[in-house]
């Protein structure tokens, strides 16, 4: 059995932790995924000061991020839903499906809001014309409903 490696997370990693956390992961996961993508850095005895500075910086950023997330939520919920035109057959079934990337681009174009495509929660694939209620995870405990209407392109 290989022994787990300690790393310090520099970004939030789903199902692992938030920035500043010290976690134990498999050596290959740390070496091949987390560290090259700058999501984590190797833990050393002297890195505790780095952790403290990182947490202080994140506390300041978190306040600003929460305010920004609330403004984004207000923009997403006000006004008309997001409209996406897609090629569809006679029965309303789409040729392909609508991706979270397409939804994020439509939100930017129509609402003036940038959303990370990974934060859009889709329960089932969007493969038919119609209205869909989605959720956008804006912050740790803040999410916003998002209504998307898919129309057949003319």
Automatic annotation (TrEMBL):
Gene3D superfamilies associated with the record: Ribosomal protein L9, C-terminal domain, Ribosomal protein L9, N-terminal domain
Q: Return the InterPro entries for the record.
A: Ribosomal_bL9, Ribosomal_bL9/RNase_H1_N, Ribosomal_bL9_bac/chp, Ribosomal_bL9_C, Ribosomal_bL9_C_sf, Ribosomal_bL9_N, Ribosomal_bL9_N_sf
Indicate yes or no for the key word Mitochondrion.
Answer: no
* Gene Ontology annotations for the cellular component aspect, listed alphabetically: ribonucleoprotein complex; ribosome
One biological process term from GO is: translation
- Matches recorded under Pfam families: Ribosomal_L9_C (PF03948), Ribosomal_L9_N (PF01281)
Q: Where is the Ribosomal protein L9 domain?
A: 17-44
Identify a single GO molecular function assigned to this protein: structural constituent of ribosome
Similarity field? Belongs to the bacterial ribosomal protein bL9 family.
Q: What does this protein do?
A: Binds to the 23S rRNA.
State what protein this is by name. Large ribosomal subunit protein bL9
